[in-house]
Amino acid sequence: MVTVKRKRETSRRATQKDIARRLGVSVMTVSKALTGHPDISDRTRELVARTAREMHYTVNVLARSLVQQRTRTVGVVVPDISEPFYAEIIRAIEGRLRGHRYDLLLADSNNDPDTETQAVRTLLEKRVDGCIIGPTEGAKGSVGLLRGAGVPFVLVNAATTFRDCEAIGIDRADGARQSVRHLLECGYEDVHYLYTYAHLEQSREAIRGCREAFAEAGRPDTDLHLVHCREHTLEAFHAAVLELVACRGRRIGLFVWDDEMAVGVCRAVAQKGWKIPDEVGVVGFDDIGISRFLPQALSTVSYPKAEMGRAAADRLVEVMGGAETRAAARRTQMPVRLVVRETTRAARAGG
User: 15, 33, 59: which is the final residue of a domain?
Assistant: First the structure.
């Protein structure tokens, strides 16, 4: 029985009381030493820290949060954590929050408002201090939950629908306008916009930008073809080009919803035997890392993903810190810019 009892004792997590007992000091001294309190000498602080490491002591976050009424955790919900686009945003958020000594709890909404609402409910049950959400189009449920709970939140990559929320976004219409204008200036005559989420405001804004580019060029938008892909997958975009894009003896411009889907588009173009950029020009969106390393580097719209993530984290920390409530929520529009690479080129003279 004695052996069993000792085994159980050694497997138990060490507490501040255990450290104090070993060193013959008070629990208050241990607590102050571990938090860097100025009342404790450097010698005692180092001794307590070394003993804590030897005993494999870890902070009881639950107990601390009950006392402080804060967990120092932030919930982050995005539509698809597998997308390189959101991975870069999440990484920037996590890095910024770590600098502010916050931990991150991550959830994936799968672009579904109900899943998003449930994810936010779970995060609230875990008592997060704040939330950053890449909202779905129907995110009213999750926003309502956060407001009802009085938990600060910031929206990232948010549509203008959420005008009364703290938000970081971009002008998708301007990115589309720059892309299609470039394709037209290069002499591509038939322009196809391949996209997925027809119900999203961002899709509607992009289509508006495409049409504005045609109007600015004095071109009829009958030469603009909207190609809706039912799924946001490489297979769907690849199939759309094979089945719905035809060469009528004119140069073709393909503007794609994002860089990842542009990979499938370029594969289909190659299978059709069309030459990029002489016969077909391709422009993506997001400027993810892989876009520079395709067989022909992809022309794309550079989306300030890391900057957006850091800005969202800074804004949330500011609000959680008790910043004065403003008369109107702040919406920050981050600039986008076209990056011209090898998948687009002006027509050669006489060609």
Answer: 59
- What's the CA gap between 234 and 221, in Å, rounded? 27
Q: How confident is the model at residue 317 (pLDDT cuts 50, 70, 90)?
A: very high
Tokens of 53: 């490491």
Give the tens place of pLDDT for each residue, 215-244.
Answer: 999 999 899 999 999 899 999 999 999 999
Locus of tokens 């085994």: 7
Q: Cβ-count burial of 9 within 10 angstroms (0-12 exposed, 13-18 middle, 19+ buried)? A: exposed
Structure tokens at 347: 């027509």
Contacts of 189 (CB under 8 A, 6+ apart): 223, 250, 251, 252, 253
Report how far apart, in Å, the C-alpha atoms of 31 and of each of 18, 26, 41, 254 are. Answer: 12, 9, 13, 62
Torsion sign across C-alpha atoms 117, 118, 121, 123: negative
How far is residue 283's CA from residue 231's CA, in Å, rounded to a whole number?
A: 19
Segment 296-306, tens digit of pLDDT: 999 999 989 99
Using CB atoms within 10 Å of the CB of residue 242, give its burial: 0 to 12 exposed, 13 to 18 middle, 19+ buried: middle
For the beta carbon of residue 189, count every other beta carbon within 10 angstroms: 15
Residue 298 lies in a domain: yes
Which tops the pLDDT comparison, 206 or 33?
206
Write the pLDDT tens digit of every residue in 127-151.
Answer: 899 999 999 876 788 999 999 999 9
Which domain does 21 fall in, by range? 2-59
Beta carbons within 8 Å of 99's beta carbon, 6+ residues apart? none
Query: Considering the domain boundaries, does residue 226 fall inside one?
Result: yes
